[in-house]
Amino acid sequence: MDSSKISMEFKNPSNDLGLTPFWFLNEKLDEKELSWQIKEMHEKGLRGFVMHARYGLEVLYLSEDWFKKIEYIVKEAKNGVWKQ
């Protein structure tokens, strides 16, 4: 790859090379709040996230409710702002 392509890829990384932050999930995991956070991350130029349960989580980790919230997040991101 020539230096101009490398420079361009550095300035505007593809989805494969962009930042992917840890998204700390805590509290109640309110769907309205989750949707807002997904939208905000997308609008700020993030191309994805890694969901990470943290201290303060009010949904029992690995419970049925936990997986429903994770499913909601994935569907919201996939069908919403990160539509491919």
Summarize the structure.
The chain is α+β, with helices and mostly antiparallel strands. The chain is 45% helix and 17% strand. Strands 1-2 form a two-stranded parallel sheet.
Write the layout of secondary structure elements.
Blueprint: H1 3-11, E1 22-27, H2 31-43, E2 50-57, H3 64-79
Parallel strand pairs: 1-2
Written description of the protein model:
The protein has one domain. Helix 2 packs parallel to helix 3. The protein is built from three helices and two strands. The protein is elongated, with a radius of gyration of 16 Å. Strands 1-2 form a two-stranded parallel sheet. It is α+β, with helices and mostly antiparallel strands. The mean pLDDT is about 85.
| DSSP helical segment count | 3
H/E series: HEHEH
- Kindly report how far apart the N and C termini lie: 27 Å
- Could you say which overall geometry the principal axes of the C-alpha atoms support? elongated
| Major sheet strand order | 1-2
Low-confidence stretches: none
Described by strand count, sense and barrel closure, the largest sheet is: 2 strands, parallel
Average predicted confidence as pLDDT: 87
Structural class: alpha+beta
Number of domains: 1
What percentage of amino acids are in beta strands? 15-25%
Helix content: 40-55%
How many strands appear in the DSSP assignment? 2
CA gyration radius, whole angstroms = 16 Å
